[in-house]
Amino acid sequence: MSSLLVAPRALRWLHRTILLGAGALALLLVLPAQAVPMFARETGQPCVACHIGGFGPQLTPFGRQFKLDGYRLDVHNGWDTHVSMMAIESFTATRKGQPTPPASGFKDNDNSELQQVSLFYGGRLADHWGMLGQVTYSQNGGLLGWDNTDVRYTHNYTLGNGKGGVFGLSFNNNPTVSDVFQTAPAWMYPYTTDDLGYPPPATPAIMGGFEQQVAGMTAYTMFDGNWYAEAGFYRTLSTALLNRLNAGFNGRIVGAAPYARVAYTRSVGSGDVEVGGFYFDARQGQIGSDARGNPISIPGPYNAYRDLGLDASYQFLGSGRNIFTCNGLWVNEEQTLNGTYSRGGSSNLRNTVDAVQLNGSYWFDNTYGVQMAVFRDGGTADPVLYASRTGSPTTQGSMLEVDYNPFGKSTSWRQPWVNLRLGLQYIYYTLFDGAARNYDGAGRNAHDNDTLYGYVWVAF
Description:
This protein is mostly beta strands. It is built from five helices and 17 strands. Strands 1-2-3-5-6-7-8-9-10-11-12-13-14-15-16-17 form a 16-stranded antiparallel beta barrel. β3 and β4 (about 145) form a beta hairpin. The radius of gyration is 22 Å and the shape is globular.
């Protein structure tokens, strides 16, 4: 499909979704007070107090502290401070139609979908206890399942020298979901993107390999407002429970997987900087199928994944009129594929996978945003594991996104009842599966996978 057709396709999609957005706004206007976003209701603050651009997940210093304190700044009592909903309607078009439809019920190109409908429950539960939980429905798969969940116990402390901080425990289902910086894999850019285009062939396990499939407990502290440390363990939930939760199953963690995180942050002028690192070490068993076709764990050799990551970020908030952010993340994964190799699923017993991303954003008045990123996902060539002409997983490119958030500030119309983001994102590939041209041996080039993604995101 010629790239010249992308703009007309997007315009047709926008015409349809404008009608959807108008209907959603009309609904939001007649909702009673309990239908506003739960944390804005709980804290009595506008959305931009916690989030850059009036929408998540980018956190301001106030938003980071609110999360560290266990989502417990409750200045308004009532059940209505605990429930919110959001929905994302999206359109995806690749430069060239895909060889096969990306999912059941969709075409090989030009797909619109109800990408996500989520129900959130969160806020203060009791003294020292708070949470943020999410369940999500997606048209792609037609399933309702649990999503990121974070239950916290927190307590403030002061040492003999007068310095102190906050200590907490997080019970969560996704390594790094408990983190407060936008370099963490669970919260890194893009904050929403297509699920009907082309994902990278390989990424480190810490970047979503176990999300919603595990239960973990981590202990954390933010000391003196500068030093952040977190450590804990994750174990896989039972396959029977995961099937009921529609959470997927990629293989059971053998024993427990340790996770650790350190970071240093400080204010610099009208902004703040952060540098840090990650560690995650998981041994993953093999999977099979039961009589009904459900995935199950099977005995045998396991694969080992050891991830080390470095990250850095900078925010300039100023007066709130002109906001700049910059984030960087690098992760290296050492793999020992005892299970995959023994079953003939890889050419190599040992591989590496690397991921690097740099992204930046500019927001004017928390309303008009431009976000950009460059990325590279690569690793050891393995002709069996990566079934392409090159046998390489290396995929790289760039992203450009423009956003419009008309509401969410303290002076916004119907604040905080109405929350809306309109976004248009373009992903440009320079390499895919290790090559710019004919990476699959069938004449498909990296640019054929370039993806236009537009979305309407509403929350209340």
